[in-house]
Amino acid sequence: MTLARLLQALVLLLLLWVAAWLAGAVYWGAAWWLVAIAWLLVFAHVLVMALEFALQAWFNRSDPAPRATARELLRAWASESIGAVAVFGWRLPFRARRFADLVGHGDGDGSGASGRRGVVLVHGFACNRGIWNPWLRRLHDLGVPCIALDLLPLFGSIDRYAPLIEDAVRRLTQATGRAPLLVAHSMGGLAVRAWLRDFDGDARIHGVVTVASPHRGTWMARFGFAPNAREMRPDGPWLRALAAAEPPERYRRFTCFYSHCDNIVVPCSAATLPGADDRHLRGHGHVHLLQHPAVFDEVLRRLQDDAVPRSTANSRSPGKTEPASISGRPRTSA
Fold first, then answer.
1. Among 24, 58, 188, 264, which is disulfide-ready with 286 (CB 3.0 to 4.6 Å)?
2. Burial letters for 51-83: b for 16+ Cβ neighbours within 10 Å, e otherwise?
3. Helix axes 237-244, 188-199, angle to 10 degrees
4. Tens digits of per-residue pLDDT, 249-271?
């Protein structure tokens, strides 16, 4: 079953369940506790996210990234809670095919792709291509060739996603005649690294931009038992094997965005890579980080830049030092 079908079933089941509780409230004289239960069902994710933010604040106490203020954490919690309804209650289940890939051949466009650098969009764990809809709308308006993947099987090994990325890179390269830029959110960054390892992709891409990707794992993966969730556990065998197979210079092709308010990647600096252009963005949660204007602006800049991206590994975060396990200095953006 695809994620869209699964979420459609869950949304409809939730609506029916809430309707049953509300009907019971009407039948029994508007019992307040039945109404309260109905509202609790609708907004249960808000409580779950509150726990996530509390845990990440605790585990980030000794992280080298700048500390998040209480106000930043509260705003990030509110943004993630509101955004989750739009993303997981509407966009992913019902609008995942709203925007087609734009490659210039067979997509109704027929022109404009040749000679323009394209972008491959790779989503994260328990998501689908619908998470990129705001990006796809803007890329279509700008005429940028793009392919947004659906990583299947949904709960399979991350290794199984590498051939899907290979197909997208090959298609986009053939359509444009230029090496594409890869942009990945969350687990998608690990899938891109697996593709680089398996298909010798370094010379075939313009670079990689990752957003909130658990490059060195995340403590939250301890709650997951699917193969791809287990592979994201910190210092796990899959992550160790991946890092051991990578040449050190590969990370210089990466720009890694991360935030001290990330409620999924814990600790937050696990979303950085040694020698990469690591950029810290304040006050944004895991999914909401995709909407930060600095991320999309950097992707547009990279698409227009023909030079090979160079690492800014010597840049520093104000008032912070680097842990022994990170060789690049995270850069802070407002």
1. 264
2. ebbeebbeebeebbbbebeeebbebbbebbbeb
3. 50
4. 999 999 999 999 999 999 999 99
DSSP, residue by residue, 72-104: HHHHHHHHHHHHHHHIIIIIHHH-TTSS--B-S
| pLDDT value for 322 | 34
Cα separations in angstroms, 78 against 73, 126, 295, 300 = 9, 21, 21, 28
pLDDT higher at 27 or 202: 202
> Radius of gyration over alpha carbons of the chain, in Å?
21
Mean pLDDT of 199-227: 96
Identity of residue 326: I
User: What CATH superfamily classification does 119-333 receive?
Assistant: Alpha/Beta hydrolase fold, catalytic domain (3.40.50.1820)
Closest-CA residue to 266 (of 219, 332, 306, 327)? 219
- Residues 303, 119 contacting (CB under 8 angstroms): yes
Residue found under tokens 């809809």 = 133
Length of the chain, please? Answer: 334
Which structure tokens are listed for 260? 């001290």
Higher-scoring residue by pLDDT: 230, 24: 230
Question: Cβ(185)–Cβ(161) under 8 Å?
Answer: no
Q: Give me the pLDDT at residue 29, please.
A: 66
Q: Is the pLDDT of residue 141 over 80?
A: yes
- Compute φ and ψ for 97, nearest 5 degrees: -110, 20
pLDDT for position 96 = 94
The Cα–Cα gap between 5 and 315 comes to: 45
Owner of token pair 């991320």: 295
CA distance 276 to 253: 7
Which residue spans within 173-270 are E strands per DSSP? 181-185, 207-211, 254-258
Strand ranges in 124-274 using DSSP code E only, listed in sequence order: 146-148, 181-185, 207-211, 254-258
Which pLDDT belongs to residue 149?
Answer: 97
Rounded Cα distance, 123 and 64, in Å: 27
